[in-house]
Design goal:
294 residues; mainly alpha; globular; transmembrane helix; MetI-like; membrane
Length: 294
């Protein structure tokens, strides 16, 4: 064996060990969360309301609030991020302005969520008068997730071959028609993947929501479809404790006797849901890619 081959083998072993260390760390963290938590998950736990001072409570309201907040945030953030990505990739020229815009997006992505949460509390809750509400939480999570959504959407658009754009323009299509009918459908798998990954981050966020969506859950009427009713489940102006905030609250206050069990079960549900979001992103992206190839 030559010296170059020995160095190559050593480097390969080191890279393999580092990869195994990362996999082992992930498995360890998942095991520490899922093993004690799965035993507490039951149908009653998932479908019953939480208790303030008694045992036997569930997480249904917090789970519903988390999914509702994901939908509300994506409805606001996806059009904004997609518009920014289309401008940066399709219309903007490479100059100091676009460089500054991309730098601002990178800076925004590096801000701690607690800082964005405090900003949301000062602006959305106090200045705009939204109080603690789902809408205030959705707006602050929009700020938090715009960098990720914008980057993934711009990357997906940039991977569409220029020949497809030139073919559309050659057929007499306007530029906006080329983007709408050719570029966006081709970039759809990457855009959807980024949106679903962002949904997983929204679902697991807690710090920014403590100051915007609130830490209390009112008694919600799930038969009331009027979005303007104060107790309607569709009302975006009601305060709503999400699953991640509920876990934080249980571990800081611990007022119920079985706080540890509820916290472990809720954490396991949270982790499993985020894993499903990530697996769903890969599956949907793969299926759409296969369909577009036909």
């Amino acid at each position: 064996m030559t010296k170059a081959e020995r160095i190559d083998r050593i480097a390969t072993i080191l890279i393999l060990l580092l990869a195994l260390a990362v996999v082992g760390l992930v498995i360890t963290v998942l095991g520490l969360i899922l093993i004690p938590g799965i035993s507490h998950i039951s149908w009653h736990f998932l479908t019953s309301s939480s208790q303030s001072f008694e045992t036997g409570g569930g997480i249904f309201d917090q789970l519903f609030n988390s999914f509702y907040l994901v939908v509300l945030t994506l409805l606001i953030s996806v059009p904004l991020a997609l518009g920014a990505a289309i401008y940066l990739n399709e219309y903007a020229k490479q100059n100091w302005f676009t460089d500054s815009l991309r730098l601002a997006i990178e800076v925004l992505s590096s801000l701690p969520s607690i800082v964005i949460g405090l900003f949301g509390y000062l602006v959305f809750v106090l200045k705009w008068g939204l109080d603690f509400s789902l809408l205030a939480g959705a707006l602050v999570l929009t700020i938090l997730n715009l960098p990720l959504l914008t980057r993934t959407s711009e990357t997906a658009l940039s991977q569409v071959p220029n020949l497809q754009r030139q073919a559309g323009l050659g057929l007499g299509m306007a530029k906006w028609q080329v983007i709408l009918k050719i570029v966006l459908p081709a970039a759809l798998p990457g855009i959807l993947t980024g949106a679903i990954l962002s949904a997983g981050r929204i679902f697991g966020e807690a710090a920014a929501l403590i100051y915007t969506a609130g830490q209390s859950t009112i008694t919600v009427n799930y038969q009331d479809w009027n979005p303007f009713s104060p107790t309607s489940f569709l009302n975006p102006m009601r305060p709503a404790e999400t699953l991640a905030v509920h876990i934080w609250k249980l571990n800081t206050e611990g007022l119920i006797p079985d706080a540890s069990a509820v916290s472990s079960g809720a954490a396991a549900v949270l982790v499993l849901t985020i894993l499903l979001f990530n697996l769903g992103a890969r599956l949907i992206g793969h299926l759409i890619s296969k369909r577009l190839e036909k």
